[in-house]
Amino acid sequence: MSRSLLVAQSGGPTAVINSSVCGVIVEAMRHQDIGGIYGAINGILGVIREELVDLREEAPLSIWKLRRTPSAALGSCRYKLRQEDFNRVMEVLTAHDVGYFIYAGGNDSMDTAHKVAMLAAEKKYDLKVMGVPKTVDNDLLITDHCPGYGSVARFNALAARDSSLDTEAIYTADTVKIIETMGRDTGWITASTALARENQDDGPHLIYLPERPFVAEKFLESVQSIYKRLGRVVICVCEGLRDESGEFVTASKRATDTDTFGHKQLGGVGDFLVSLVVSKLQIKARCDKPGTIQRVSGLCLSQVDMEEAYRVGQVAVSKAIEGESDRMITLIRRESAEYQCETGLVDLEKVALGRKPVPDGFMNRESNFVTPQFLEYVRPLIGGPLPEYARLRKKVLDKRLPPYA
Amino acid sequence: MSRSLLVAQSGGPTAVINSSVCGVIVEAMRHQDIGGIYGAINGILGVIREELVDLREEAPLSIWKLRRTPSAALGSCRYKLRQEDFNRVMEVLTAHDVGYFIYAGGNDSMDTAHKVAMLAAEKKYDLKVMGVPKTVDNDLLITDHCPGYGSVARFNALAARDSSLDTEAIYTADTVKIIETMGRDTGWITASTALARENQDDGPHLIYLPERPFVAEKFLESVQSIYKRLGRVVICVCEGLRDESGEFVTASKRATDTDTFGHKQLGGVGDFLVSLVVSKLQIKARCDKPGTIQRVSGLCLSQVDMEEAYRVGQVAVSKAIEGESDRMITLIRRESAEYQCETGLVDLEKVALGRKPVPDGFMNRESNFVTPQFLEYVRPLIGGPLPEYARLRKKVLDKRLPPYA
Predict the structure, then answer these.
(1) Pick from A265, A296, A392: which is nearest to B58 by CB?
(2) CB atoms B62 and A391 under 8 Å
(3) What's the CATH number for B3-135+301-351?
(4) Do B68 and A389 count as a contact with CB atoms less than 8 A apart?
(5) CB within 8 A of A50, min separation 6: which ones?
(6) CATH superfamily of B149-299+357-382
(7) Which of A311, B24, B61, B368 is the most buried (most CB within 10 A)?
(8) Is the pTM of this model over 0.90?
(9) Nearest residue on chain A to B396, alpha-carbon basis
């Protein structure tokens, strides 16, 4: 007796969360056990509102194009289910005979999926619930990395390289460039900008993550010292930077900036560092803050990321059909010369609400850059090297005149 | 008797100014009349400092790769020559027997080139001076458009599309997205974000250019009305936005932010609009500000832009050899069904310091979006359509339950 499958997307969009949905749909279509293939509009909200769409009605080409379409095609949400919502979820799943519920998201979403799985078990409703990892933040526990991260890392590596070249080019213009990246609680995204550095004096020169407390005096010393040596400094900083007391260096005070999970919307760290540099060091500075553009850039898709996102979607369905439930698919990196990942399973409970910070060994002692170990970790995830740029030899002509005052 | 050619880059870097230098070098190598092929480091500063490099010593592959290398490989500058510097320029050109001086830049740079040409004429020093148009701002007079613009337009069209999809996806998160683009005095860059809009309700929904005074009340009305209809609003705004009195809506007060041309470094308009929306309409809002990343993105090269940048570099050299001087190469759009441009010449004096605003016919009456005429103008410049994304049909399932409160 065939039952329906329901897939939904949750949390911040990424460049490849649609690739996961593509993997879910394609795999679901292969199985006779699956009747309806449905999508919920705007994640769990679409479930409680009974806003479901029939994915079997989509053109095959549209489904295939999802692999390279950023953002969340079914719509996403940031909504924390209230206690009373859970019964409604069960009613809707029952009304549409949903036997498989696939939820793509981060740690909050895995908590939601876990609670749905527990309630179904309590009510003796036969439901296989599988979590598909998704987050640009790369902070889900246990999995080696999260689909969505490789692409945002590629964007930031490219952006930091281009922006550093921009700073290097202009003499007597802005000589301190701050690039503010996303990352509410962890520095994975910011750290990826280190991939921009190909030669010793390339930017970024300094990288600040929220895993280490920010000390303004040390920061200014580092900036000053690099400025003296190179005449320019490129600094990448995480929006979630915290001071020694654990407070956000700049947290928005606006009440409307708090979402229903109680998270603060951040922003402004870059401008804050600009002010610091200008006021304390009297050096010109400016800030680039690509914001949400970084997490959904269709142009910066990492091929590896896109394929892994597809695979975790596929495997989530095949495992659900095999009878697994209340689990999330993980990526496990093989110990091999060439980068390879296989998929694994973890109990949703173990990843729900948890958070993996950038480990100590990935940051240097001065807390102002990453280590070679981190670069080794992140390099394969961005799906191939950055495009090669020309570097001129610049053979200097002998001077024929005395120096000009 | 062969004489040397000197090429230099000036002003803000772009994605394709190196492609122009490539065109200059390749063309120069074809001519017996040209002996040394030199580059000045950091524009005119490299001339007065006699910091010149021998471009014949570069590997052919490096030269070719310049076509796809963003920023300014020879280094650029923002430096206004003092009266006494001009004599030094002549000394350096004379010492290295420079007979051809090719300067790539915007309106300030064309003024510099014009002054060098006049001084050479006055001193009866045989020098052919040619200007190569370059500016992401697209505000040079007479030329149909400026190399550098097509690529920044492509970046912003893509960024605005991705960022709009991001806003569309998340229910109950940020529902007003502000994207702040570059453009100190003109709105050409901001206007290009309109290319992101493929269907009627797509973002961006509102576009604000400095050519029309910003009126906060009208802005808030427009935001409110779109928000009521769609539940989201994407707004693209130019960093150089001005109010009815002609003042920058937010001008930085910091003295160090003023360069030697007396221009103010801007920034903060996006954050200012966020505050307006949050405080006056109580709607969540956030700002993306890609900053310098937009003007040097190696990934968003417009093929048309890259080829035209190469061509204006090439033609500058061939015209100098034919005896032209004190001129800038222009691009002239042919009246034809398919987009085609030929090159022309204009006196440097006519473009020096001048500025072409976005014309009235390219903006709508409400001053909050562009017209179809502008889209027709800009579309061919970005070098091919944006990559096609999946759009799901979303056939809604019949509801089986009463609505949920």
Answers:
(1) A392
(2) yes
(3) 3.40.50.450
(4) yes
(5) A92, A95, B399, B400, B401, B403, B404
(6) Phosphofructokinase domain (3.40.50.460)
(7) B24
(8) yes
(9) A53
